[in-house]
Amino acid sequence: MIRIDNLHKQFGKLKVLDGVTFQVESGGVVAVLGPNGSGKTTILKTILGMVLPDKGEAFFQSNSILKQWDYRKEIGYLPQIARFPENLTVQELIDMVKNIRSVEASEEQLIQRFGLKGFLDKKLSNLSGGTRQKVNIVLAFMFDSPLQILDEPTAGLDPVSLIRLKELIREQKEKGKTLLITTHIMSLVEELSDEIIFLLEGKIYFQGTVSQLLEQTHQVNLEHAIAKILENHA
Amino acid sequence: MLKILKYTFADLIRSRWSYVYLAFYLILGFVLLFLNNDLSKAVITLMNIIVVLTPMIGTIFGIMYFYSAREFTELLLAQPLKRSTIFIGQYLGIALSLSFSLLVGLGIPFLAYGVARSSEIWDFGLLLGVGAFLTFIFVALSVNIALRNENRVKGFGYAILLWLFMAVIYDGLFMISLVMFDDYPLDKFSLVVSVLNPVDLSRILILLKLDISALLGYTGALFQNFFGNGWGMFTSLSMLFLWSLLPVKLLVRTARRKDF
User: Fold this and answer.
1) Which of A5, A188, B102, B259 is most deeply buried (CB count within 10 A of its CB)?
2) Nearest-CA distance A84 → chain B (Å)
3) In angstroms, rounded to a whole number, what is the distance separating the alpha carbons of residues A224 and A202?
4) What is the domain partition of chain A in residue ranges?
5) Pairwise CB contact (< 8 Å): A79 & B68
């Protein structure tokens, strides 16, 4: 579904991606992990066409994405920071995104699930961080997109919403969707992910399943395995 | 593009600042008319305010909106939309909502005073048109600055400097150079220099229309001599068109190459 080919990206003097190559088959949850500043978000944004690579290419469903935009109708995206036009209401924002995509959307059920009913006619500037994140989730999941890109989806969520989010991700997975997730919450990765891509200093350090990673590092849980890798590397 | 324009416009027209801006023009219009008690004088005073103020408001609003809408822009970038669609839509949304405040804010008091039945209606119309032009030009310029500067404080500083330069410093430098190179023929130089600044250009355009040679100043008089009233207005108007197109072209180019 996604193929990344020898991706290089530098921001000023900072080399963020240094020859990243990987492939993601369709169906399943893929966790993109790595320490802060290892290039996780940059990779996700490259797939979305928001960051333009210095070198290398990215393919979505075997078509190059460079200079393309129409392919994004197949992708749902949940950005890291949720901020919206301040003077629109939640309902207006949802309607706007629906209007832009002009495809079938099922936001009702998501609004119910995350308890946003009472917030629909509130202005976005009056919402708390966690509530905005829930709006963000609704926007990302309301379309029937084959690929979902979630950048730190758990940020600011209360425990109940976190459980709802996990349910949602699991359901999407069962429907055969592909989900690309970055997170620092390892329990989420252990619970949900089928595959891990571990980035270190702009390169892919490991790609495989959780159990493969545990085996390779001789650790009992993911948190320790990751800590081990980072320690060895330091 | 129309969808983006619509939502940006809807977002801005409901912001408190749009109302402040609108109220400012309403009050300004009424005060000017009551103090001058004469339409043509009010139009001249208004000209001096508009050629300085609309660029400033355009610059500040443009840069503020773009920085505060940064995350929203990212949300749009992840949608199946072309980059040029997003940025031109947002740009037009800002420029139109500001122009709307200008037109309504000044339109109401002047219409109430009876400008529509007077001979000043064309002068007044041109004044509003120039105000809208300046708004579009300076919003586009400030959006360019916002796109090129990630650091908001820096971007804001550059934008204010740009306005200060165009509205105040430019004229000063121009005057100094005229005095210093007094011995040389400066006609062509002055013509070129005044065409390169949309603020000067607008002032000349309005003065040519008002046909007040006493207020024309050196460059205005040159324009009049060189082109005559009709051609002078045509030339300055087409230069204003060019001025509003080029920054937008630059904006699209910059946006296309930028990482978000």
Assistant:
1) B102
2) 5
3) 22
4) 2-233
5) no
Least confident of A7-11, A86-90, A160-164, B77-81: A86-90
Domain A2-233, architecture per CATH: 3-Layer(aba) Sandwich (3.40)
pTM: 0.86
Q: Which residue of A has its CA nearest to B84?
A: A69
Q: Does B75 touch chain A (CB under 8 A)?
A: yes
Q: What is the mean pLDDT of chain B?
A: 87
**CB–CB of A88 and B7 under 8 A?**
yes
CA–CA distance, B53 with B101 (Å, rounded to integer): 13
DSSP state of A194: S
Place of tokens 């946003």: A116
The reply to whether A135 touches chain B by the CB within 8 Å rule is no
Quote the DSSP letter at residue B168.
I
Tell me if A45 and B10 make a contact (CB, 8 A cut-off). no
ipTM: 0.83
Question: How far apart, in whole angstroms, are the C-alpha atoms of residue A234 and residue B5?
Answer: 50
Which member of B7, B82, B259 has the closest CB to residue A96?
Answer: B7
Contact residues for A44 (Cβ-Cβ < 8 A; gap 6+): A32, A149, A151, A180, A182
The beta strands (E) that lie in A34-114 are given as 55-60, 63-64, 75-78
Task: Name the helix (H) or strand (E) containing B69.
Answer: none
